[in-house]
Design brief:
The protein has 493 residues and is mainly alpha-helical. The chain contains 20 helices and 3 strands.
Length: 493
C-alpha cells in the first residue's frame, strides 16, 4: 500500500487533532524530551555502571565543566590510555568491567575472552536460512531480525533468571559482529551485485581484529587500524542509563520480557538518526562541504558554508551542523577528545591529512558560528559522532555499517543495564502523562456531523473499496459526474 490522497487527508486529520499547545509544557512543568532547557535530563533511575559528568559545583552553584565519562568509576581517558600504552586490545577487558563491576586480572580476562571466543558462532545454517534469504538495505533492521530469530534457537528464551540472562547477553555480545558483517555481505551481494565473502572468525583474535577480518575480502588489516577500531568500540560501549537506547532497555526489561525482545527494542532506538545514525549525517555533511569549500585553509569560506547550514541553505536544509553539540556535554565530549588524538595518527597513515585539517577547522569554527547565529542555553562542542564517521571512512567501513558498529559496542552497555534492572528494580517503569485534551459528551451515531473533509475521505475510501470489489467480479462501476470531479479538484487546490 502506498500513500494515497486518502491517506494524506487522514494524516491531516491526525495533525489537526493531535497537535499540542507547546506552552502547556511550561504551564504544567513537563520536561519535553524529559530534559530541561539546559539539556539536563529528568532523574529517572539509579546506576553504578557509568557516570556522565558535564557540570561541577563552584561556590555553591552548578557550572559547566569539561566533560567526563567513567565506566564503573574509571575515567575513560585512563582506560584507553592504558590499552594504547600497552599496545593491547581493550574491548574484552572493558566488557568484563561493565558487566561485572571490576577490572579483571590476567587469569580472569583470559577465561572471559575464551568464553566470548567460544560463543562467537551462529547456529548451523543461520547465515543461509536467516541472513542470506532476506537481505535488507538497512543493516540495523537485519540485525534486529537476526536477534529476534535467535529467540527461536534458544532452548530457554523466556527464562529471566540472572544466570540465563547473562548467558544470553554474552552470546549476543559475541555474535553481534558476525550478524552485522554477514548482513552487510548479503546486502552487498544481492542488492549491489558485488562478490560474496563469508569468512569465519578466528578464536585467537580480538573483537576489533575479527570485524576487519570478516569484512575485508583479503582478511588483511594493519595493527593501527585494529587498535583504533578497538578504541572506537570502547568509546561507544556505554553512556549512562538515560541515553535513548539504554533507557529503552531499562523500560522494556522492567516489563519482564525476554532478552531478545529487549535488545531488539534497543536496536530500534539506536537506529534513529538522532541517536546512533548521527555519524552518517556527519559524513554526508562533510561530503557536501567538500563540493562547496574549495580551499580548506580559507576559514572565511568554511565559515560561510557553516552559516548556510544554519540558515537551511546547504546540505539537507535542516538548519543543523551535525556532530556539534550534545544533550549533556557543553564544554567538551571526552569521547571526542580521546578520538581526536588517534584520528590524526590514522589520517597520516591513510594520507588523509587534508581532510583532517578540514574537520579540525570545522570543530573550531562551528561553535563560534552557532553562538553568533543562535540563542543557546549552553556551550556547543564536537561530540563523538563528529570524528567517528571520519574514522570509519578511513578504515574503509561501508556507510551501511556505521550504526551497526555502534550497536556492536553498545550491546555491552545494554547488557549491563539489563542485568542491573533485573537485579535491583523489580518494578515496571510507568511514568505519567497529563491529559490536556477536551472533554466531550457521547454523540449517538445518527446524530454525528462529519468534520470538514472527513465525509470526502470516507466517500473516497468507500469508492475505492467498491472499485476494487468490482474489479474482482468483472463489473463496471458508474463514472463520477464531471461536476463532482471539478468540485474535488477545486477543493484540493
Amino acid at each position: 500500500m502506498k500513500v494515497t490522497p486518502e491517506i494524506e487527508k487522514l494524516t491531516q486529520i491526525c495533525l489537526e487533532n493531535d497537535k499540542l499547545d507547546l506552552s502547556l509544557y511550561g504551564k504544567y512543568d513537563v520536561k519535553r524530551g524529559l530534559r530541561d532547557l539546559n539539556g539536563k535530563g529528568v532523574l529517572a533511575g539509579l546506576t553504578q555502571i557509568s557516570n556522565v559528568q558535564a557540570t561541577k559545583i563552584v561556590d555553591g552553584k552548578e557550572v559547566p565543566c569539561a566533560g567526563k565519562l567513567s565506566y564503573r568509576g574509571y575515567d575513560i581517558k585512563d582506560l584507553t590510555r592504558g590499552f594504547i600504552n600497552d599496545r593491547r586490545f581493550g574491548f574484552e577487558e572493558v566488557t568484563y568491567l561493565l558487566l561485572f563491576g571490576k577490572l579483571p586480572n590476567q587469569e580472569e580476562l583470559n577465561e572471559f575472552s575464551g568464553i566470548l571466543a567460544d560463543q562467537r558462532t551462529v547456529p548451523r545454517n543461520f547465515v543461509r536460512d536467516v541472513i542470506m534469504k532476506a537481505p535488507s538495505r538497512d543493516i540495523m533492521n537485519a540485525l534486529s531480525r537476526s536477534v529476534l530469530t535467535l529467540y527461536s534457537y534458544d532452548k530457554d528464551p523466556d527464562n529471566i533468571q540472572l544466570d540465563n540472562v547473562l548467558r544470553q547477553c554474552i552470546n549476543l555480545i559475541s555474535v553481534f559482529p558476525l550478524l552485522s558483517v554477514y548482513a552487510y555481505q548479503a546486502y552487498n551481494h544481492y542488492e549491489k551485485g558485488k562478490s560474496l565473502y563469508i569468512h569465519q572468525p578466528k578464536r585467537e583474535l580480538s573483537t576489533a581484529e575479527n570485524i576487519l577480518r570478516l569484512l575485508r575480502p583479503d582478511k588483511k588489516y594493519t595493527a593501527l587500524e585494529a587498535e583504533i577500531l578497538d578504541i572506537a568500540l570502547i568509546l561507544h560501549m556505554e553512556h549512562g542509563g538515560g541515553n535513548n537506547s539504554t533507557f529503552t532497555t531499562h523500560v522494556v526489561s522492567s516489563s519482564g520480557t525476554d532478552t531478545y525482545s529487549a535488545i531488539a527494542a534497543a536496536l530500534g532506538s539506536l537506529k534513529g538518526p538522532k541517536h546512533g545514525g548521527a555519524n552518517i549525517k556527519v559524513v554526508k555533511m562533510f561530503n557536501d562541504m567538500r563540493k562547496h569549500v574549495h580551499d580548506y585553509s580559507d576559514e572565511d569560506e568554511i565559515r560561510d558554508y557553516l552559516q548556510k547550514l544554519l540558515h537551511k541553505e546547504a546540505f539537507d536544509k535542516r538548519g543543523l551542523i551535525y556532530g556539534m553539540g550534545h544533550a549533556i556535554y557543553s564544554v567538551s565530549d571526552p569521547r571526542a577528545e580521546v578520538f581526536k588524538g588517534y584520528v590524526e595518527q590514522l589520517a597520516r597513515e591513510k594520507g588523509r591529512m587534508k581532510d583532517y585539517q578540514l574537520y579540525e577547522a570545522v570543530e573550531r569554527l562551528a561553535p563560534q558560528v552557532i553562538a553568533e547565529e543562535r540563542k543557546i542555553y549552553k556551550g556547543v562542542s564536537a561530540n563523538v559522532d563528529f570524528y567517528s564517521g571520519f574514522v570509519y571512512s578511513m578504515l574503509d567501513l561501508p556507510l551501511e555499517l556505521y550504526t551497526p558498529m555502534f550497536a556492536i559496542a553498545r550491546i555491552v552497555g545494554w547488557s549491563a543495564h539489563r542485568m542491573e534492572e533485573l537485579i535491583n528494580v523489580d518494578k515496571i517503569i510507568r511514568p505519567a502523562y497529563k491529559y490536556v485534551g477536551h472533554h466531550a459528551g457521547f454523540v449517538p451515531y445518527e446524530e454525528r456531523t462529519p468534520e470538514e473533509g472527513c465525509e470526502e475521505v470516507l466517500r473516497d475510501l468507500e469508492k475505492g473499496a467498491a472499485t476494487e470489489a468490482a474489479g474482482e467480479t468483472g463489473e463496471n462501476t458508474e463514472k463520477e459526474a464531471p461536476e463532482a470531479v471539478k468540485e474535488r479538484s477545486e477543493e484540493k487546490e
